[in-house]
Amino acid sequence: MKSILTALTVVALVILSCSFIFQTDPWKVPEKYQNLKNPVLADEASINSGKEIYDTYCRSCHGKDGRGSGIRADRLTTPPADFTSENFQKQSDGALLYKIFSGHRDMPGFSKKIPGGKDAIEGGFGETRMPGDLINYVRSFYKK
């Protein structure tokens, strides 16, 4: 009986330790991305193009309204980002670029799916407008 209780205590401590580790697993953005600016002007054409990319790759998790309430959101262990939040919008363009194309935990990286993704992983916005268009669209969810 004592050995079962000891074993259960050890298992509980391991589970507790693992949950703490996962909660403190921040999404670290490399320094070279921190000050990158989106070179694509956030005009109507860019936002419309970004919406097409978003609807194809992002909407199923982040939802139509960008709040993280897409049809796949409930299946994830980490809630999708809420693009309407001020904290999300405070991130630099380069941080968003890095996160979209590298991925982290439940969030897949799109470096091989969205044109220009290879350039994003190498530390820049690249030669296509698509990464910049997508970031402009994601930014359009925020209403001050």
Write up this protein.
With 144 residues, this protein is mostly helical. It contains 8 helices and no strands. The protein has a single domain (29-139), classed as Cytochrome Bc1 Complex, Chain D, domain 2, CATH 1.10.760. It is 51% helix and 0% strand.
Order of helices and strands, N to C? Answer: HHHHHHHH
Please tell me what the overall shape is. Answer: globular
SS class = mainly alpha
Taking the alpha carbons of the first and last residues, their distance comes to 60 Å
Compose a concise summary of this entry:
The protein is an all-alpha fold.
Write the layout of secondary structure elements.
Layout lengths: L1 H22 L7 H4 L9 H14 L1 H4 L23 H4 L3 H10 L14 H5 L8 H10 L5
Helix pairs in contact: 3-8
